[in-house]
Structures are given as C-alpha cells and as structure tokens.
Amino acid sequence: MIVTTLKPLDEIMNFISPYKNIMIVGCDGCTQPPRGIKEAGTLSQLLELAGKQKNKEFNFKIITIAKQCDSYLVASILEPQTEGVEAILSLACGIGVQEIARIFPGIPVFPAQNTHFMGAEEREAGILEERCAGCGDCLLALTGGVCPVARCTKGLLNGACGGSKNGKCELSPERDCGWILIYEQLEKQGKLQNLKEFRPPRDYQLTGWRVMS
Amino acid sequence: MNKMASQKERAQIEEVIDEASGKVYLPPCQIACPVGEDIQRTNAMIALLPLDIQEASSQIIRIGDEIYDKNPLFPICSYICGLCEKKCNYKDKTGAVRRTMLKRFLNDCYLPYLETRPSLPPPTKEKVALIGGGPGSLMGAYMLGKKGYQVTILERGSQLGGALRYIPKYRLPKNIMDTTIDALIRIAHVEVKLGVAMGPDGKTLDDLKNEGHQAVFIATGTPSSRPLTIERKPVAGADLEGVMFGLDLLSDGNQGKLPPQLFQGKRVIVVGGGNVAFDVARTARRLGGDTSLVCLESEDKSSKDGIPADIEEIKGASEEGIRITYSRGVEEIIGENGKFKKIKCPQCISVFDEGGLFNPKFNYSDVIYLEGDVLLVTIGQGPERAFYQQEGLLDEKGRLDIDQLTLMSNRKEGIFIGGDARRVGFAAEAMRDGIRAAESIDRYIKGEDLKAGREKEYEGAAIPERKDFKPQPELVWAPVEERLNFEPFEKGFTLEEAVEEAKRCLYCGPCRSCKACVALEFQPDIPKVKLDEDSCIRCGNCVFYCPYNAAKLESPGAASFNLNNCHGCGLCIAMCPAIALDLEYWEKEHISTLISQLASEMEQPGILVFRCQWATFSILNDKPSPNIRYIELPCASRVDEFHMLEAFQKGVDGVLVVACPEEDCHRGTGSRWAQHTVAKLQKRVAEIGLQDRLHFCTVSSKDPKEFENELAKFYQSVEAPGSKESK
Predict the structure, then answer these.
(1) Cβ(B497)–Cβ(B473) under 8 Å?
(2) Which chain A residues in 6-35 lie under 8 Å from chain B, judged by CB atoms?
(3) Contact B85, B96 (CB under 8 A)
(4) For the segment B369-416, what is each residue's pLDDT rounded down to a tens digit?
(5) CB hemisphere CA count around B136 (13 angstroms)
(6) Do residue B241 and residue B366 come from a single domain?
C-alpha cells in the first residue's frame, strides 16, 4: 500500500481559501491509512470549522472512487460531478492527484496529503513500514522474501555489513537489520546457501523516470 | 424487529443455533447449569445495580424474579450448587465468576419479598401426583403448576426437602430452605400430603390413578445408606454398638434430635470420601467429636482415583482439625464387649478399573488399625427398590426401565421417574429431571409427541478477547474457633462486592440468548450490524477490531457478519473507512438527528456528553442543567469522529466522551477503543484550536462525585477565554 500522511490543515486552508465550491475526492485504493469516503467527510468537517473561524464559508462536495490512479474511473465518475466545482482536493497519493489534474486541466487540484513510500502496516503495533523501493530488479526470491533494498538502511545487496549489532542497524539502533531478517528467514527455509551467491551492483538505469508499454 | 411485539416479548430470550454445527449456542456456564438458569442475563443485571442498597432493592427483586422463573429453588442452590462455575470460561484464567455467591447475595432482599410474591393463577387443568418431596418433585410441581396443572406431592416423611434435609445447617441455613420451599408450595398451589408411604406398606400407583391423577412423577431418591463391603462381601462387625450410618446423623442433627455435645470426649471415625462424608465429619466435629476421616481415594484430586469431595470441603475440614487418611479401605470392624473399638484398614492401590468402574483393589499386606468410639459409614446411598418392584417398573436386571429423554417408564404409560432414584447426582440434576418430567407430562396429557424437538446438542461460546483478567475474590470464612457450630461461616457479598464480581463476567454467550439490555430497556432489541456490500472496500478493519470474532472477510467478496457472535457494540462501524456499516437502532443518521436536536435546545456554553449505555455512574438526573445534554451509545467504542465534529458544527461548545474504567467495561475493550478514537481526533482538532473542547474521561460508579468533578473541570476549560476565542 502507499503510505501517506495528511498535510497540516493550515496548508490545505491556504490551497482552498480562494475558492468556495470544492470537491473532496477520497481514494479507496492503496492509500494507508484508508482515505475513503469517511476521511473525505472528516476533512470537510474540519475545514468547515476552520473556515468558520476565519469567516470563510465553503461548499464541499464529498465523493470517493475506487482508484484515483485509474484514468477511466476518474473520468467516468468525476466528470458528471464537476459542474460548478472550482477546486478539487484529492485524498490520493501523488499519482491520483496527477491523474485528476491531467483529466480536468481546467480545475485546480490540490493534494490533501504527502506521499511517502510503499509499505505495510503492522496492525498490532500500529506501525507503517517501507517494504518496497521499486528498484526494478526484484531480489526477493533470493532473499527469503525480505527486501534488502528497502529494509537494509544502506540498501546493501550483499550484507550484512559490520554495523549490524544484536539484530539492529548501526545507523538507527531502533531499526531491525534487514540482512539479519534475511538470514533468519533463509535459515527457516534451509536456504542459507543463497547468501553465498554474489549479487552484482544495482542497475540504476532501472530507476528514475520510467515508462513502459 | 416486529414493531407490534411488546417490550416484554422482545426481551424474551431466544434460542441461538450455530449455523455451522446446528447446535444450540450458549455460554458454557448455562450449558452446565442443569436447570438452565439465564446466568449471563442476570449477571449483567447484577453488574448494573446502583450502589445504594435502597435504590438497588427493587432491581434485586426483579433479578430474583428473573431467576425464579427458571429456578424457584435458586435461594437453596445459592448455598449448595456451583456446577456453572466448574465450566466458566474464566476458570482457567483467574478463577470462575462466583455465580453461587452472586445468587446468595440476592437472598437478603429477595427472600422477604418471596414470602409475599403473588401466586400463580389457580390451576385449571388435570391432576398430577408427584411422589417424594425432594428437589426433583418440588421443581416438577412448580413447572406443572406454571402450566396450570393441579399437583399433589406425596412425601413419606414429616417434611419436604428430601435429600436437601441432610445438608448441615452451617452449609444451608434452615430458614433459607424453609422459606424457599414454603413459597414454592404456595405459589404453585401444590397440595402436600405428608406421611404417605408408597409400596408394600402403602399406596399403589393404581390408587393414585383412581384418585384422578392423570400422570405420576416418581422421585423417591436414594434414602438407603450403602453398607460397607469388601471384595463384594459385607464387612464383619457392622452391627456393633457405635457403628452407624452418617446419613442418620445428618438427618437427626437437622431435626434437632441430637444433644449439642453428643460426641464430647469421643473419637469419631467417618468412612467415605464424598461431600456427604465431609458433611458427616464436620457435623461430628461440631458435636464435640475428635474426628478423623478415612477414604479409599487418594489425595491427588486430578488422578483417576482422586478424592471426589470438593476442595473447599477438604480445606474446611482440615482447618477444623479433622484428620484425613487417604487410600485405605475397611476390611473389618473390630469390637470389644459388643462395642466398636477399631477398624482394620488395608492399603487401597486402585479404586476404579480401566473401564472407569468402581472396583477397588487392596494390598492386604499393608494394614493399619484406626481406633475410635464411633464409626460413621458414609460411602453412598441407593434407592429403595420394593416399590418399583411391586409396580413392575424394573427390567430383568433389576434396573429402572425408563426412556432417558422423556423419563417415562417403558413398562407403564403415564408414569415418569427421575432424580437420584434414576441416577445419583447433584441436587440441581434432580431438579432438571423435575423440569424434564413436567414437560413430558404436559405433552403426555395433551396427547402430543413426547420427544419432538427435545434432543439438543450444545456448543459453548468461546472466551472473548481481553487484555487482562481480574482476580477472583477470595471466599471469607469465619476463623475455626468461631465456626464450630451450626451457623453459616462463609461471608456473603456486600452490594458493592456483588456488583464487582458480576462485572468480572465476560458475557461470553450470544446476545440473543441474554437480552439483558433489552429487558433493561437500553435498546428496543439486539441491534444488528447492517452492511452495504457495495460500499465495502474490503479493508479488513471490521475483522481486525471486532472483539467477538463476528466479522469475516473472505476472498473474493465483501465483509460478512455472524450475528450470533456480534454483540452490537458498533466498534466496527466507528472504524470503517468506507461508511459501509451501520447499526440498527443506533443509525448514523439517527445520532445526527439527536445531535441537531440537543444542540438547538442547549444553553451556551453547551456541552454534549457521549456516554456508554452500560456505564453505571449516575448522570445527575436530579438536576438537569440547561447547558448539558447526553447521548447514549451502545458502547463507548461506537463514538465516531463524524458525530463529534458534527456537534461542533452545530454550535456545541464542548464534547465530552465518558466511559467506564477499562476494568469495568462491559465489553472489556470498548473503553480503550473509545479513548483511542477521541485521542486521534484530538490531535486533529488541535490544528484548529479546539483541543480544550474535546475530552475523554473514565468514571467509576464507585465515586458518585467523580463525574460531577470531571464535568466541572471540562466546563472550566470550555469556558476559558482562550478557548472561547478559538471557536
């Protein structure tokens, strides 16, 4: 899932204060925490209260769509709703914001949140943690299902390094050493010999601006 | 909900069938209770009693009436039973909920009322006779009386109660037993005939038929004491002076026939390892005897040959100075000049054989002698067979020939047999037979199928999710030097202790088999979770948060709910990011309407309090403030950021969410999640300066001032000048 955090309310207020009729669009896709119809509603309530303090009145239209990154869904669902809408506030990751901007070039679109990383939630602990760096050359088959690029602080492909202490990383001692996790996982699977396989340096041509058909 | 159904009808308990297994789904305690008391429902009601005894008394009577309806002998059970506690889900955590003590607590208020409780409508239906005056017949008589039959109990002795009359008074006070039995007889219009024997020297079943009885329930118990045997032969010396049956001692003792220091200066030996043997030993001790007890069984209760008596009996007896000799049989009773002198006791190496049958084995080379002046044999009882034989109710092997489900004799129609005479068991099991026979007799007289729909299988509810388990309260006994008499020595619960203990109950069972909340008019019926499948985004929040394992998410498809498990708290609804869920009777829109209405009638500064309907603190009803309004939620965890913000939007100045302390929470986790939801929103409203206007607090029912103080504190922070400007 795509991990996001809400922007400060003041920042959002600055975006939208020139407008009155605003559509808040939730996304039921992969944002985590979920930013669907309920969050769209809560945000509108908070903005309305904030507006009242500044004698500013808004008209909010609340809607959610399954995935804001799907241009067909964005077009077909939002199109009939846009009449009279002066600005759109998107609760998607950066991709969704850009899709709406592309499909409705005449309406200003604002992000309601900052997009951070691709990660997973540990529900019991309530923690969201990065799990995939989108490196373009997946190594998980060799590393027992634990990604060294995302989870080793240094992104080493041949670890662990000398900075691993008691299973934690020397750079941030509260953080698990990714390579110890890989070792433990491979040990459980009886595949420690994988560690002897040398992995060549990453091909950074696979990252950066990418397009494929 | 059927809108036409009355509140009383809606509060009626329903039988919940587990869809997967087809079994009746109940909390394990209720499956264990032979008479089927509604334990969860009445525990929930006790937990909600106000802490002022005057205020609580009318509710205690109401709870007593609830239990009475299923078990008119419950004041007696509250001293002698505890079968439910043996199956309590709490047992393996920190100890069973002390249901027996909870019921005993009700007695103080309930028994005086019971003496004036209105009788059932006078009987209009056929005549039915019940033979024997014990718990089986008494229960049968009440249930038949409730169905409108004219019932007569025939008892050979001079008083009703049967085997209950053997229970020493220090364990079951006489006034409790007398009041309970007398009330039952009056309430169910039971005709009682004492001193009427059946069998060779008395009446026959034909006599009863000729008197107009359409059916007969026979529950004559097991009045014959079993004599000592070894290797299936009688033990020699049983006729010596000083050798007697323990049961006779108990019976005489309870009838006041024994001098208080009967055994003063005497050494008393009791033979037997059951609870009755301990009753005898502790009675002998109270009559001044230097008492010891010898039994076949071993000290290790968990082994196959472990002593059957309850651990409390063994502990109590030991404290009182009774010595226990384990794993010894009696081979011979030895006398001197016709008087009992000693017993010869070989070591018992095994009590039950591999098939679980009583078949003791001895090592005769390891023998001890125990000397004494009195020997009390208490190794079990059996039925008197003569009457059954005369009436042709036995099979070829001499056993009662009856249908075990309906209790009707296979040899004579319209004759039903139960209680200890059928199978020796606990008093409550004899009562169950009375209930079962009453149902059979009703069907028999109406000419209906005796068996249809009666064979049921049960499935016990699992233990709900909890972070902590509260310790079981210790039983408080009077010190030994103060309890060697026939007064009860176990300290009962105070009102506060009873409420505390009832709150330990986990309410494991399904809501529809409880409905305490409906009976108390918290809600019109058990609310159902409503799911809009089209809105569900399959995030799994409901599955993660549900403490009762009611929500399920299977791939593919929307979430689904097992409403048997759902307790209607609404936590899943507060946590659903898709607004795909709602709760019957507490709909989101309904709460919104309430907020608008209350906000408009409040004077400024207005405070809206969201309060859990289970919270027991008083809400200052006596002086309603124009500035404060309340909204009750099915559980504090239903509190929703949407509604809290909506209150601010409608002009409310402060929102206070009040729940019980976590350890008092009806659902265990509700208070914690409510706090979580409020804390999350607090961070967000801080961005618009409303942090002082939203507050969560817990209030215990123990301190009547606590809520008032919390409210005053909050009121001040809402009134603060800085706070006012930010509005």
Answers:
(1) yes
(2) 8-10, 28, 33-35
(3) yes
(4) 999 999 999 999 998 889 999 999 999 998 999 999 999 999 999 999
(5) 32
(6) yes
Residues of the domain holding B45? 7-117+462-519
Same domain, B532 and B647: no
Other CB atoms within a 10 A radius of the CB of residue B84 amount to: 24
Kindly list the residues from chain A whose CB atom is less than 8 angstroms away from the CB atom of residue B675. none
Residue B611 sits in the same domain as residue B466: no
Q: What is the domain class of A2-116 according to CATH? A: alpha beta
List the Cα angle B540/B567/B457 in 5-degree steps: 105
Whether residues B631 and B506 share a domain: the answer is no
Candidate from B577, B641, B649 with C-beta closest to A34: B577
- Contact indicator for B153, B192 with CB cutoff of 8 Å: yes
Kindly state whether residue B140 falls inside one of the protein's structural domains.
yes
**pLDDT at residue B621, rounded to an integer:** 56
Contact A38 B579 (CB under 8 A): yes
How do residues A189-209 score in pLDDT, each as one tens digit? 999 999 998 889 888 888 777
Phi then psi for B253, rounded to 5 degrees? -60, -45
> How many structural domains comprise chain B?
5
| B365 shares a domain with B399 | no
Closest-CA residue of chain A to B649: A49
User: CATH code at B633?
Assistant: 3.40.50
Which residue in B432, B443, B445, B381 sits closest to B404, CA to CA?
A: B432
d(CA B370, CA B332): 11
- pLDDT beyond 70 at B725: no
Report CB contact under 8 Å: A49, B684: no
Q: What percentage of residues in chain B have a pLDDT greater than 90?
A: 82
Judged by average pLDDT, the poorest of B16-20, B300-304, B330-334 is B16-20
Q: In B, which residues are within 8 Å of A53 by CB distance?
A: 688-689, 726-727
Query: Which ipTM was obtained for this model?
Result: 0.91
Shortest distance between the Cα of A9 and any Cα of chain B, in A, equals 6
Q: Could you give the CA distance from residue B16 to residue B633 in angstroms, rounded to a whole number? A: 25
β-pairing, B607-612 vs B628-633, is parallel
pLDDT tens per residue, range B566-623: 999 999 999 999 999 999 999 999 999 999 999 999 988 899 999 988 887 666 555 6
Q: Residues 52 to 91 of A: which have CB under 8 A from any B CB?
A: 53, 64, 66
B338 inside domain: yes
| pLDDT number for residue B345 | 96
Please tell me the distance in Å from A5's CA to the nearest CA on chain B: 12
Do A28 and B537 count as a contact with CB atoms less than 8 A apart?
A: yes
